[in-house]
Specification:
five-stranded antiparallel sheet; Heat Shock Protein 90
C-alpha cells in the first residue's frame, strides 16, 4: 500500500492491490482521516460510500489489479474517488505473441486503462456561536436595568 499526502494537507491518495481484505483497511483509513479533519458527521456516509466504490473497482480490476483512492476536502464538499486499473500484459508478453503469430494486442482504450467513480458529500457548516447575553457586554459591577430610565 502506498500513501501520498498532498502539500495542502486536505488531500490524500492511497494506492493498493485490489484484494477484498483491503476494503476494511481503506474504510479505517478514510474514517481516521475524517476524524483528524474534525468531520465526524461524515465518517459513516463516507465509509459506506468508499466500501461501495471499492466493491465495484475490485470487480473491474480483478484480483491482480490495483486501486487508487483519493480523498479531497474542499471548503464545502468532500470528494472520494476510486480508480481501478486491471493488470496490464507486459511488453515482452505482447511482443512474444506477435512473433509467435498470435493475436495482436488490442489497442489501448478507456476500458483497458480502468475506470473511476466518485462520491461527493456536503461538508456540514459548523454552528455559529451563540450571541452573548446582554449582561455579558456590561463592564463588571454594572447590572442591567430591568426597565428603561424615564425622565420626569
Amino acid at each position: 500500500m502506498i500513501s501520498h499526502p498532498s502539500t495542502s494537507g486536505r488531500q490524500r491518495t492511497v494506492e493498493f492491490q485490489a484484494l477484498p481484505s483491503r476494503a476494511g483497511q481503506i474504510r479505517r483509513i478514510v474514517s481516521a482521516l475524517l476524524r483528524y479533519w474534525k468531520l465526524d458527521p461524515l465518517v459513516g456516509p463516507a465509509a459506506d460510500g468508499v466500501a461501495e466504490l471499492l466493491a465495484g473497482a475490485r470487480r473491474q480490476a480483478g484480483p491482480d489489479g490495483r486501486c487508487t483512492v483519493e480523498i479531497a476536502l474542499l471548503l464545502d464538499r468532500l470528494t472520494i474517488s476510486v480508480r481501478d486499473r486491471p493488470p496490464q500484459p507486459s511488453p515482452a508478453h505482447a511482443t512474444g505473441a506477435l512473433l509467435a503469430g498470435g493475436p495482436r494486442p488490442a489497442p489501448r482504450d478507456l476500458a483497458a486503462d480502468g475506470g473511476a467513480a466518485r462520491i461527493t458529500l456536503p461538508v456540514p457548516v459548523p454552528a455559529a456561536p451563540a450571541a452573548p447575553a446582554p449582561e455579558a457586554a456590561l463592564p463588571p459591577g454594572r447590572a442591567a436595568l430591568a426597565e428603561p430610565l424615564q425622565h420626569a
